[in-house]
Amino acid sequence: DAGVIQSPRHEVTEMGQEVTLRCKPISGHNSLFWYRQTMMRGLELLIYFNNNVPIDDSGMPEDRFSAKMPNASFSTLKIQPSEPRDSAVYFCASTQSDTQYFGPGTRLTVL
Amino acid sequence: AQSVTQPDIHITVSEGASLELRCNYSYGATPYLFWYVQSPGQGLQLLLKYFSGDTLVQGIKGFEAEFKRSQSSFNLRKPSVHWSDAAEYFCAVVESGGADGLTFGKGTHLIIQP
């Protein structure tokens, strides 16, 4: 089992640019979660999907953030336009038997 | 709203000594409880979880945790730490049923002294 796959692992971009983070959940898992980790705020839930349908996006900080899950094996988190305060590690997790399994994360740096 | 408190930001333990990391939660019902470990630059690895039943749960890498309803606590323990245990440890909770996102504590940074 390859686990949750995230790409890219590292992303450096300039303020104002569009950023797209990608996630492939573990096959057969029907829920997918996006989290953000920062020193100041710790780990925060951004949005989650159940059977590809967004259930709760109350954690998405601004309209600049959007997430999609077009099928059971792929999700994206997009930031447009990006700002320096978006610099963080973004994690994707998928769920089996009420347990979340995390990907390695994408470290985003916005200059 | 549910919350998780890990009162110790840093803990330093000598190699071979015992370890206890504290976790308290605030939630109306009995939530599902988890401990995750994060090594530098890595993702979060599940150590153990509690849903119901026996309040002492065993996990990977020799860790265990005890759920105490009266104290709203779910402390993580290990009888003898190894240098490889140095990492960040996170306690997390979710509403029973596990359908929602996890609420995490701020984490405890574990330092192992030789």
Question: How many helices of chain A?
Answer: 0
The ordered H/E elements of chain A are: EEEEEEEEEEE
For the biggest sheet of chain A, the summary is: 7 strands, mixed
Mean pLDDT of chain A: 95
Query: How confident overall, as mean pLDDT of chain B?
Result: 93
Overall SS class of chain A = mainly beta
Relative helix content of chain B = under 10%
Radius of gyration of chain A: 13 Å
Number of helical elements of chain B? 0
Protein model, in words:
The complex is a heterodimer of chains A (111) and B (114). Helix content of chain A is 0%, strand content 59%. Chain A has 111 residues and is mostly beta strands. Helices cover 0% and strands 51% of the residues of chain B. Chain B is mainly β. Chains A and B meet through strand 4, strand 5, strand 9 and strand 10 of A and strand 5, strand 6 and strand 11 of B.
What is the fold's blueprint, element by element?
The complex is a heterodimer of chains A (111) and B (114).
Chain A: E1 5-7, E2 10-13, E3 19-24, E4 31-38, E5 42-50, E6 53-56, E7 65-71, E8 74-79, E9 88-96, E10 99-102, E11 106-110
Parallel strand pairs in A: 2-11
Antiparallel strand pairs in A: 1-3, 3-8, 4-5, 4-9, 5-6, 7-8, 9-10, 9-11
Chain B: E1 3-5, E2 10-14, E3 19-21, E4 24-26, E5 32-38, E6 44-50, E7 56-58, E8 64-68, E9 73-78, E10 87-94, E11 103-104, E12 108-113
Parallel strand pairs in B: 2-12
Antiparallel strand pairs in B: 1-4, 3-9, 5-6, 5-10, 7-8, 8-9, 10-11, 10-12
Task: Please describe the structure with a list of short key phrases separated by commas or semicolons.
heterodimer, A: 111 residues, mainly beta, four-stranded antiparallel beta sheet, B: 114 residues, six-stranded mixed beta sheet, 12 strands
Brief summary of the model shown:
The complex is a heterodimer of chains A (111) and B (114). Chain A is mostly beta strands and 111 residues long.
